[in-house]
Amino acid sequence: MSKWIKIYFSGYVVIGVIYILIVSGIQLCGTFPILLISETGNSSHIVKYILREDKETMSYERNKITFENIGPSTSRKNDMLTHNGALCPVFEQRLGNNIFQFASTFGIAKSKNMTIILNKNDRINRIFKLAIEVRKDTSVCNSFKVRNEKLSATHDKNLTNFNQKESFRLRHYLQSWKYFFPFIKELKKQLTFRAEIVNNVRENIVKILHKYNNVSSYNTTLVGVHIRRGDIVKSRNWNVATPEYLIRAVNYFKDRYKNIIFIVASNEMPWAKKYMPSDISVEFIQNKAEVDMATLASCNHTIITVGSFGWWSGWLAGGEVTYFKWPAKQGSGLEKRMNYTDYFYPGWIGL
Ligand SMILES: *[C@@H]1O[C@H](CO)[C@@H](O)[C@H](O)[C@H]1NC(C)=O
Ligand SMILES: *[C@@H]1O[C@H](CO)[C@@H](O)[C@H](O)[C@H]1NC(C)=O
Ligand SMILES: *[C@@H]1O[C@H](CO)[C@@H](O)[C@H](O)[C@H]1NC(C)=O
Ligand SMILES: *[C@@H]1O[C@H](CO)[C@@H](O)[C@H](O)[C@H]1NC(C)=O
Ligand SMILES: *[C@@H]1O[C@H](CO)[C@@H](O)[C@H](O)[C@H]1NC(C)=O
Ligand SMILES: *[C@@H]1O[C@H](CO)[C@@H](O)[C@H](O)[C@H]1NC(C)=O
């Protein structure tokens, strides 16, 4: 009799143990995200920033995973197998614009398994160590039909709505991260500055660190600053960043990091020197555009004002980026062409 009771009870014990295991298992799983969040709540600002970026771009993150599964090494084979067409970027204006034109055409080509055709002499190729094939002769592009974007800084879904067996030239500014977001890893690989530029930058940075030799480079936070004024001060379209913006942005970083050196590039140096806050360690640089951009890109974080030169300096640096929140003048043509969600990279901080 007692034997049966024992078995009876031990059955309950086994069921009980299983029950406890299951419930605690479920609870354990449930607490993981909470643990993560409470940990990140105490830890650095960077982590919170990454979480926010993920939330805002959830659908793009999903795309990224799908696309990356295809893998870059097989895509050329696929092009040949499927006889897809090619895309030619149409380069207009200066460096920042050119990088948008390249990056977006690159992204669209990748998303449609197409080839991108670049000329050896394109500025993009002279500055960056591209990992794609470049050609001596790109006259074939002249026979391709042109597709124009609708608005310059708004993601145009219709621009990419074409048959990938055909070939096109994609024209105008294409200033939205949404064109290339699923391929940012591959894009970053393409946008590696050439060795001459990198050496030049390294020398400049070492000089700056030496000047502040009481700060070890290991512990120093470099914040690149791009102040765009000059040509756009009188623009009907652009607002230029104010001295107050610079103060807000500098304070943003001062509140979060120690031993900061700000490195400033500008197309209006006298203004930059006058209005950059002076109670900080600040250095001004003035080199060729690509060296300035590469120097800012090698900093830990970035303060940008307006314009595509700053945009790419911040993107390439890959840290925190603050931007001037209201770049388009009210009632201007630019205001109609620019969608801030499409234009500003997710996670960047508008001040
Ligand atoms: C690109 O090629 C891959 C592999 O053949 C295929 O799975 C994918 O659907 C293609 N993508 C497009 C947009 O055609
Ligand atoms: C989409 O692009 C095609 C080809 O460029 C054009 O004919 C059509 O009008 C565009 N549609 C919209 C809604 O803009
Ligand atoms: C580095 O030295 C300068 C001048 O000697 C001093 O003003 C500054 O506070 C020092 N910086 C740090 C981070 O120690
Ligand atoms: C970095 O800074 C921290 C505190 O700010 C200090 O304890 C540490 O010794 C520094 N490390 C180096 C390599 O200078
Ligand atoms: C800044 O960036 C450099 C180079 O990427 C890195 O070695 C350094 O640790 C970074 N500094 C801080 C404080 O994160
Ligand atoms: C900007 O584009 C997004 C979609 O990316 C859209 O939801 C939003 O309404 C647009 N904003 C404006 C001001 O047109």
UniProtKB/TrEMBL annotation:
GO cellular component, one term: Golgi cisterna membrane
Enzyme Commission (EC) number: 2.4.1.-
Main location: Golgi
Coiled coil residues, start to end: none
GO molecular function annotations of the record: galactoside 2-alpha-L-fucosyltransferase activity
Subcellular location: Golgi apparatus, Golgi stack membrane
InterPro entries, A to Z: Glyco_trans_11 (IPR002516)
Topology class, membrane: Single-pass type II membrane protein
Membrane-crossing residue ranges in chain numbering: 12-36
Pathway assignment: Protein modification; protein glycosylation
Top-level taxon: Eukaryota
One of the protein's GO biological processes: carbohydrate metabolic process
One Pfam family here: Glyco_transf_11
Keyword vocabulary terms for this entry: Glycoprotein, Glycosyltransferase, Golgi apparatus, Membrane, Signal-anchor, Transferase, Transmembrane, Transmembrane helix
Family per similarity comment: Belongs to the glycosyltransferase 11 family.
UniProt protein name: L-Fucosyltransferase
